């Protein structure tokens, strides 16, 4: 693969460029050269009213995904992104939020990058896949108040210009936008799209809930019709995926023809 004529391998994040091109330009935006974790960075702003704030880092020293797994975060290659977003909702009303964030990620990437007829799909509950390889992941942490108010930190990692990583770095099949397109991508353009589209989707979710995204989810559901295993704690469920319910729980049709709703867990394609 020859990338010499397909763009610059290293374009640093540029706060002025990102802010200048945002539709949602009133958000607070922090660009960091290095941080332990963009989610952790935003936690210190949780108590500060209802300000929407975004943090994007060139490097994470303790990047993590769900279940405290390491998120490989080399300097200047990918997007390590978190948004602090307030909701006038109780915690139970945020069920399905990760699915909406996944839809926003897919839409934002496709608005900027020509993917050579590759389809972005979502592996419930929080991974973006291309051809069975992981492109992006989501980690959402929620601070709930007693008065029906929540603040969510939406953490997103997208493999952009990464070409090499060992199995020790990433313990599953993975891909990047560079590997898919054979072109280096300007992460600033991707960050602009990600912020604007994510804001649009979170505003719609806040007003209308998961129901507003039902049809879009069907078009992105990477598990539908497939035999799936879901591990949640000490429990394991297997069946054919038949979609999600109104709360965003994964629905599996078991061998006994029973519909099992999985509220959380890790999903794996069996066939």
Please characterize this protein's 3D structure.
This protein has 271 residues and is an alpha+beta fold. Helix content is 23%, strand content 28%. Strands 1-2-3-7-6-5-4 form a seven-stranded mixed sheet. Strand 10 (250-253) and strand 11 form a beta hairpin. Helix 1 packs across helix 5 and helix 3 runs antiparallel to helix 5 (187-208). The model has no long low-confidence stretch (mean pLDDT 91).
Topology:
Blueprint: H1 15-21, E1 28-32, H2 38-43, E2 53-57, E3 79-87, H3 97-112, E4 121-123, E5 127-130, E6 133-144, E7 150-158, H4 177-181, H5 187-208, H6 214-220, E8 227-232, E9 235-244, E10 250-253, E11 259-262, E12 266-269
Parallel strand pairs: 1-2
Antiparallel strand pairs: 2-3, 3-7, 4-5, 5-6, 6-7, 8-9, 8-12, 9-10, 10-11
Strand order of the largest sheet: 1-2-3-7-6-5-4
Shape: globular
- CATH superfamily grouping of the largest domain: Bira Bifunctional Protein, Domain 2
CATH structural class of the largest domain: Alpha Beta
**Which CATH-level-2 architecture of the largest domain?**
2-Layer Sandwich
Query: H/E order of the elements?
Result: HEHEEHEEEEHHHEEEEE
Mean pLDDT: 91
The major beta sheet can be summarized as: 7 strands, mixed
- Strand fraction band? 25-35%
Based on helices, strands and strand pairing, what is the structural class? Answer: alpha+beta
How far apart the termini lie comes to: 31 Å
């Amino acid at each position: 693969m020859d990338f010499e004529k397909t763009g610059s391998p290293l374009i640093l994040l540029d706060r002025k460029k990102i802010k200048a091109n945002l539709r949602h330009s009133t958000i607070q935006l922090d660009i960091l050269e290095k941080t332990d974790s963009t989610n952790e960075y935003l936690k210190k702003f949780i108590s500060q009213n209802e300000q929407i704030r975004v943090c994007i880092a060139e490097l994470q020293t303790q990047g993590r995904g769900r279940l405290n797994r390491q998120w490989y975060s080399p300097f200047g290659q990918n997007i390590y992104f978190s948004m602090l977003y307030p909701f006038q909702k109780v915690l139970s009303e945020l069920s399905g939020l990760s699915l909406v964030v996944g839809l926003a990620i897919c839409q934002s990437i496709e608005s900027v990058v020509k993917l050579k007829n590759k389809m972005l799909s979502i592996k419930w509950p929080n991974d973006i896949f291309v051809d069975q390889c992981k492109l992006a992941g989501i980690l959402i942490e929620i601070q709930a108040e007693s008065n029906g108010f929540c603040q969510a930190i939406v953490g997103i990692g997208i493999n952009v210009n990464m070409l090499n990583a060992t199995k020790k770095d990433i313990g599953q099949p993975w891909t990047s936008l560079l590997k898919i397109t054979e072109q280096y991508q300007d992460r600033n353009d991707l960050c602009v799209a990600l912020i604007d589209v994510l804001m649009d989707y979170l505003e719609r979710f806040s007003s209308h809930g998961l129901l507003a995204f039902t049809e879009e989810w069907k078009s992105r559901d990477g598990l539908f019709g497939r035999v799936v295993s879901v591990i949640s704690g000490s429990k394991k469920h297997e069946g054919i995926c038949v979609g999600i319910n109104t709360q965003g729980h994964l629905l599996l049709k078991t061998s006994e023809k029973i519909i099992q709703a999985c509220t959380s867990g890790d999903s794996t394609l069996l066939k």
